[in-house]
Fold this sequence. Notes:
Layout: E1 12-14, E2 20-22, E3 25-30, H1 34-39, E4 55-59, E5 64-65, E6 71-72, E7 80-81, E8 84-90, H2 101-106, E9 108-115, E10 118-119, H3 120-128, H4 134-137, E11 143-144, E12 149-150, H5 151-154, E13 161-166, E14 169-175, H6 183-191, E15 200-203, E16 212-213, E17 218-223, E18 227-234
Parallel strand pairs: 3-15, 5-11, 6-18
Antiparallel strand pairs: 1-2, 3-4, 7-10, 7-16, 8-9, 8-15, 9-12, 13-14, 13-17, 17-18
Amino acid sequence: MTDIIPAPPIPRVPVRGGATFPVRRIFCVGRNFADHAREMGATAPASKAERGTPVFFHKPADAIVTGDADVPYPPGTRDLHHEVELVVALGQDAPKGPLSREQAQALVIACGVGLDLTRRDLQGAAKAKGLPWDTGKGFDYSAPVSELVPVAEAGVLEDRTLTLQVNGQTRQHGALTDLIWDVPDILQELSMLYALKAGDLVFMGTPAGVAALVPGDTFVATLDGVAELRGRITG
């Protein structure tokens, strides 16, 4: 049996050392830094015991932008926002059943830094009507990501910070110790909702400081000491 159309290419992210990572799915975590939750008008948990359950959403796999390529300003919005995030890549399928923290952490093969680009006006309008806000998050070119760095080279992520500069000015900065749900927490929660598999990327949430990007803006996102992402917004 032949395909009715040519098979689309598999989106791939470069990996330090010369390999590539074929992307299956992109999972994203909302409100995973307390300061960002507060700036978005939500109540941040005072302790881990009060944190409830994480917020998840998706982006299409072909939303990735790699190689520090230009990012076109998306249609349908006048308020494109940046959200700098830790990105983790899964290198094996999750076993069935609830995952232990050790099993969850063992799924991670590499990490990097990315931007969860957001059409904030579309998201806000959908929220105000109690509607899904997929169009605010899951659009073309909405997931720029750096090269991925194998976990053996990246070291202990809890010691790292995220920073985003736009036009040379720092917009966002946050420590990964401030994540409400850390990487094993998130993978445990995801595994109760989805079959996690090799090829999945997880964008882990953003610290405070989200703001607008306009055509001509340049950005530099860093996971300090590990990875860097550069790019420019085009009209």
